[in-house]
Structure formats: C-alpha cells, structure tokens
Amino acid sequence: QEHLVESGGGVVQPGGSLRLSCAASGFSLTIHGMHWVRQAPGKGLVWVAFTSYDGLNTYYGDNVKGRFTISRDNSKNTVYLQMNRLRVDDTAVYYCVKDMRYLEWIMDVWGQGTTVTVSS
Amino acid sequence: EVVMTQSPATLSVSPGERATISCRASESINTKLAWYQQKPGQAPRLLIYGASTTAPGIPARFSGSGSGTEFTLTISSLQSEDLAVYHCQQYSTWPPTTFGQGTKLDI
Questions:
Q1: Size of interface A-B (CB pairs under 8 A)
Q2: Is the pLDDT of residue B17 over 90?
Q3: Quick check: A46 contacting B, CB < 8 Å?
C-alpha cells in the first residue's frame, strides 16, 4: 500500500525556518513527481511546490517562490520542503502528495499532513 | 493562472438523495479536471480524474462529467459517510495547478 508520512511541523516565529520531511513507502519515488500542498485553517487547498521524479525540475507557487525549496533524496525515498523567512500567512497544514503519472498533476496519494504555525 | 470556481459553497442533502456540485474554470481545460473528497480531520482523497474517470476503490455512486469550462460531480444516492468537503482541481495548465474553494456537503 502506498503511504506518505510528513514530519517536521511546529510553531515558529515570523522570519524563522522549518524543514518538512515526507517519507514514502509502498512505492518508489524514483518514477513519481511529488508536491507539497497546504491548507490554511478553514480554507481551501493551495499548491505550494513540485519536484520532478529526478529532482531536475522544480516549480513553486508565487506566494512561496524565493523562500521555500523543495528537494528529494530518492535513495531515502524522502521529499523535503525547506521553508525560510516564514510569515504568519504560511500557517497551514502541509500535505505531501504523489503524482499519479508523468506530466499530469493528478494527486493520487496524500499524506496525513503536518501543521505549521507561524506566530510571535 | 486558471481560476476554479465551485458552487454552491454549502449543500444540504438528505440520505438517499442525489447531490450535484459544480465547478467552473476561467478558461478551457478540456477534461483535465480532478475531484477530491476531504472528510473532517482527514487529508483529501482522489475521487475522479480526467473529469469522469473514477479512481480505484471509489464507490460507483460517485460520477463526474463535463469538459471545457463546466464540470459536475454527482453523488447518486447520498450516504452518511459522504459528509465532507469536495474540491475540484485543474491540471491542464501548470504551474500552478489550481483548486476550487471547496463545497461543504452536509447530510
């Protein structure tokens, strides 16, 4: 069974940093693109970042571009999201999500989410 | 970016009745549309992709239709466990992929 488990969330002050991790099991990351999607309290889903199966192509939402970095270690079957210069409006549950197939951003496996709270 | 608009924001339906949720794209996305179900306190789950293809393990009472800019998710006979927020997502033009604001289904 395909499974994703996020970790690394917590409470951080504005301007601080956090690194989220996403461990995959039941499938190999080497053939799948991966996303981070976030959901602020009581709000809808917002796409944050994407890394291609080989890590050579990455894309970011405008709200996080220049502050967040997505990366992956296929040898560890793990995806990361480095979040710097955090703002109050980055407060959300962050989901790690698997792409169903190449070049189609259909999100077929979701982790349980990790909560990031940015507050002074 | 492609803006996705869902209606209604909240839908109240009795068990056994049919529920219909709409999603409109700001430009044509062909059939590059997915639907997700998010039960309270849980992560989203893929229901439908390609506008009308049901994901594995999804009950037959869930169906999707539409193309271009207008799409519909239909639950043919509502069950109590269908209480959830339903999200549509376009993946025709990326980045970014974009979601609708969600429709809350009350049973």
A1: 54
A2: yes
A3: yes
Question: What percent of chain B has pLDDT above 90?
Answer: 99
Q: Quick one: closest CA in B to A105, which residue?
A: B91
Q: Are B71 and B51 in contact (CB under 8 A)?
A: yes
Q: Is B74 on the interface with A (CB under 8 A)?
A: no
**3-state DSSP: chain B helix, strand, coil percent, rounded to 5?**
5, 50, 50
> What pLDDT does A102 receive?
85
pLDDT of residue A41: 96
- Please give the Cα distance from A99 to A96 (Å, whole number): 10
Detail the DSSP E strand segments found in chain A.
3-7, 10-12, 18-25, 34-39, 45-51, 58-60, 68-73, 78-83, 92-101, 104-110, 114-118
Distance separating alpha carbons of residues A42 and A103, to the nearest angstrom: 30
